[in-house]
Amino acid sequence: MRLAFCGNDNASAYNISAGVLRNVCFVDALNLVPHVFLLFITFPILFIGWGSQSSKVQIHHNTWLHFPGHNLRWILTFTLLFMHVCEIAEGIVSDTQMKSRHLHLFLPAIMGFVAATVSIVYYHNIETSNFPKLLLALFLYWIMAFVTKTIKLVRYCQDGVPFSQLRFCITGIMVILYGLLMAVEINVIRVRKYVFFMNPQKVKPPEDLQDLGVRFLQPFVNLLSKATYWWMNTLIISAHKKPVDLKAIGKLPIAMRALTNYVCLKEAYEEQKKKVEDHPNRSPSIWLAMYSAFGRPILLSSTFRYLADLLGFAGPLCISGIVQGFQNTTNNTNTTEKVKDPSNSYLSSEEFLRNVYVLAVLLFLALILQRTFLQASYYVTTETGINLRGALLAMIYNKILRLSTSNLSMGEMTLGQINNLVAIETNQLMWFLFLCPNLWAMPVQDYSTERLKKTNEILKGIKLLKLYAWEHIFCTSVEETRMKELTSLKTFALHTSLSIFMNAAIPIAAVLATFVTYAYTNDKPLQPAQAFASLSLFHILVTPLFLLSTVVRFAVKAIVSVQKLNEFLLSDEIGDDSWRGGDSSVPYESCKKHTGLHTKAINRRQPLRYQLESYEQPKRKHTRPLEIDDVAIKVTNGYFSWGSGLATLSNINIRIPTGQMTMIVGQVGCGKSSLLLAILGEMQTLEGKVHWSNVNEMEPSFEASKSRNRYSVAYAAQKPWLLNATVEENIIFGSPFNKQRYKAVTDACSLQPDIDLLPFGDQTEIGERGINLSGGQRQRICVARALYQNTNIVFLDDPFSALDIHLSDHLMQEGILKFLQEDKRTLVLVTHKLQYLPHADWIIAMKDGMVLREGTLKDIQNKDVELYEHWKTLMNRQDQELEKDMEADQTTLERKTLRRAMYPRESKSQLEDEDEEEEEEEDEDDNMSTVLRLRTKMPWKTCWRYLTSGGFFLLFLMIFSKLLKHSVIVAIDYWLATWTSMDNANEARNTDEDKSTEKAYHVAVFSILSGAGIILCLITSLTVEWMGLTAAKNLHHNLLNKIILGPIRFFDMTPLGLILNRFSADTNIIDQHIPPTLESLTRSTLLCLSAIGMISYATPWFLVALVPLGIAFYFIQKYFRVASKDLQELDDSTQLPLLCHFSETAEGLTTIRAFGHEARFKQRMLELTDTNNIAYLFLSAANRWLEVRTDYLGACIVLTAAVTSITEGPHSGFVGLGLLYALTITNYLNWVVRNLADLEVQMGAVKKVHSFLNMESENYEGYLDPSQVPKDWPQEGEIKIENLCVRYENNLKPVLKHVKAYIKPGQKVGICGRTGSGKSSLSLAFFRMVDIFDGRIVIDGIDISKLPLHTLRSRLSIILQDPILFSGSIRFNLDPECKCTDDRLWEALEIAQLKNMVKSLPGGLDAMVTEGGENFSVGQRQLFCLARAFVRKSSILIMDEATASIDMATENILQKVVMTAFADRTVVTIAHRVSHILDANIILVLSGGFLVECDTASNLLLKEDGLFTTLVKTHK
Question: What is the pLDDT of residue 1483?
Answer without folding.
Answer: 87
